[in-house]
Automatic annotation (TrEMBL):
This is CC-NBS-LRR protein. Residues 178-302 form the R13L1/DRL21-like LRR repeat region domain. Coiled coil: none annotated. Signal peptide: none annotated. Pfam families: LRR_1, LRR_14, LRR_R13L1-DRL21. Residues 16-92 form the Disease resistance R13L4/SHOC-2-like LRR domain. Keywords: Leucine-rich repeat, Repeat. It comes from Ficus carica.
Length: 606
């Protein structure tokens, strides 16, 4: 469909000629910076969409659109306020001003008795709602997530029609306001309670009566970050925010208590499938979540006081139920003082369905991970330098990442036993002496920061199915050149070479005979000394369809014969000497103009 360039004069003309217009959409027209006063003459207009325009204000005449039911102002980044006479839009049912720059709403908005949906998500400049906001008795949907609200208006408990309330901020001067939630038992979907440290009396949290919100599926309980509160008081507040058993997702963030109330791991959460406990820095032990029968996803982050994780995590549930019977994803993130993860013999049947396990930035974690994980398919261990070389027994793992884990990668001979492994990423202390062979099932190999890695790397005898090989900052590997023997990999189609953190002396690439003719995608990045692309080496890549060259600042020459005829996509970025020659009047224009899609430094050529 042809999209014309609209001017404000054209819009004015439209408003004068089409008086019976019912729907008008100017969405996406950045050229529209203001609306003409004549828009007030469209008395039959029911739907007005101004989303993603550049308007900074709405003319007062908009308030004459008495039949308007839907007004869309989504992503109007320069819009800071609405007209004062907004209450004259008596039939307005739907207002979306999300991602706008509104600083305030007119007090008259509270008089729109027919308003059912109000979207103010990510209006970061909006700090308050009108004081009589509770008069919107027919409002069903209020989305204020990501807004700048510092408080909620009074008497919100009177808004009995409200079914969706994305966020509720407890004001610093009115912690008792949280009790207003007790009148909103029909809330459904997700609810985010923010600034819970402002709740001064635990009894006020009890009045919120979350137990009666039987349609609520997701609950986020968040205290202020980087503030120290009364630990016992915060435990009482959390205890009184027990949700209904229908809840499916729970997130607790910045909680200052030293332990969790029983409802977090007892029957009240019998249907929960997703639990995220984030930045609970004063809790010295994890709650016994192992007995939650429906739990599938568990994220633990920044429990700075936790030193040891042991059997207490599993709980004392019935003997017929295995710990974490339904859990599929487990992530530990930034556990700065965690030193030991110990499991006893009785825990051998824990995690029967666990598929993904991630340990990120647990710098003090030591010892072995001795456990049997029969269903695990993905294991990621990142920035755990003290963890020893003993990994869990996981016969079905297909994806393994070992990043900045010196003791683990230093003994990566354990990788050889993974018969189902298809994806392997290894970083830092990895060299040919510690990895003499790789699993034959391997399809993707990513090697990053292994400066001392030499050869042998994967011969066809070891990895006949390898299709994707990526090397980053492996200095000795780059200089070893032809000894890579990549011609022995019959299915290799993707190859990446990058060396931003090492002093490589590679001035020409790829060397003739280095890469097999099966390569279809080639990425050459951060080779600071590279000056030319080798003609013979490139012409041998008869299957090459995609070539990406990035941040090779000294690269200035491409092959005399151009690129392989099979090439369909070329992108050159951050290569200033070469980019100039590839311009429309440049030396190499004729050699790249035949390529169906060429992008030079983000500028689309074809």
């Amino acid at each position: 469909m042809y999209r014309c360039v609209l001017s404000e004069e054209v819009v004015s003309d439209l408003c004068l000629k089409f008086r019976c217009l019912r729907v008008l959409s100017l969405s996406g027209y950045k050229s529209i910076k203001q609306l003409p006063d004549s828009i007030g003459g469209l008395r039959h207009l029911r739907h007005l969409n101004l989303s993603s325009t550049s308007i900074s204000r709405l003319p007062e005449s908009v308030c004459k659109l008495y039949n308007l039911q839907t007004l869309e102002l989504h992503s109007c980044k320069t819009l800071t306020k609405l007209p004062d006479d907004f209450h004259r839009l008596i039939n307005l049912r739907y207002l979306d001003a999300s991602w706008s720059n509104l600083e305030e709403l007119p007090e008259s908005l509270s008089m729109l008795q027919n308003l059912q949906t109000l979207k103010l998500a990510n209006c970061s400049s909006l700090t308050k709602l009108p004081k009589d906001f509770h008069n919107l008795t027919n409002l069903r949907y209020l989305d204020v997530k990501g807004s700048g609200l510092v408080d909620m208006p009074t008497h919100m408990g009177r808004m009995k029609s409200l079914e969706t309330l994305s966020a509720f901020t407890v004001g610093i001067d009115n912690g008792k306001m949280i009790g207003e939630l007790g009148g909103l038992s029909h809330l459904r979907g997700a609810l985010h309670l923010k600034k819970l440290r402002n709740v001064l009396k635990a009894e006020d949290a009890l009045e919120a009566n979350l137990k009666e919100m039987k349609y609520l599926e997701r609950l986020i309980l968040e205290w202020d970050d980087d503030e120290t509160g009364d630990s016992n008081h915060e435990m009482d507040v959390l205890d009184n925010l027990c949700p209904n058993s229908a809840l499916k997702e729970l997130e607790i963030k910045n909680y200052g208590g030293t332990k969790f109330p029983n409802w977090v791991f007892d029957p009240p959460l019998c249907n929960v499938v997703d639990v995220r406990l984030l930045k609970c820095k004063h809790c010295n032990r994890l709650p016994p979540l192992g007995q939650l029968p429906s739990l599938k996803f568990l994220w633990i982050e920044e429990f700075d006081a936790v030193v040891k994780v042991g059997p207490e995590l599993f709980g004392n549930g019935s003997s017929t139920m295995k710990p974490f019977a339904s859990l599929k994803v487990l992530r530990f993130y930034k556990m700065s003082n965690w030193e030991e993860w110990s499991m006893v013999a009785e825990d051998a049947e824990a995690f029967p369905k666990l598929r993904k396990l991630s340990l990120f930035d647990c710098k003090k974690l030591t010892g072995d991970l001795r456990c049997f994980l029969p269903s695990l398919t993905e294991l990621s261990i990142n920035k755990c330098p003290q963890l020893s070389s003993s990994l869990p027994e996981m016969p079905n793992v297909s994806k393994l990442k070992l990043v900045d884990c010196d003791k683990l990668t230093g003994g990566c001979h354990v990788v050889e036993s993974f018969e189902c492994l298809q994806y392997l990423q290894i970083s830092t202390s990895f060299d040919s002496a510690t990895c003499r062979s790789l699993p034959g099932s391997l399809k993707t190999l990513v090697i990053r920061g292994c400066k001392n890695l030499e050869f042998p790397l994967p011969h066809s005898y070891h990895c006949p199915d390898l299709t994707d090989l990526r090397t980053y900052d492996c200095e000795k590997l780059i200089t070893s050149g032809m000894s890579w023997n990549l011609q022995g990999l019959p299915n290799l189609t993707n190859f990446t070479i990058s060396c931003s953190e090492c002093e490589n002396h590679l001035v020409s690439f790829p060397e003739e005979g280095l890469l097999p003719s099966t390569i279809t995608n080639l990425r050459i990045c951060n080779l600071k000394r590279l000056k030319t692309l080798d003609n013979n080496g490139l012409q041998q890549l008869t299957s090459l369809t995609s070539l990406f060259i990035s941040n090779c600042t000294n690269l200035q020459t491409i092959p005399e014969e151009g690129f392989p005829h099979s090439l369909e996509s070329l992108r050159i970025q951050g290569c200033p000497l070469l980019e100039k020659k590839c311009e429309r009047e440049g030396e190499y224009w004729n050699k790249i103009s035949r390529i169906p899609r060429s992008v030079i430094d983000r500028e689309l050529i074809n």
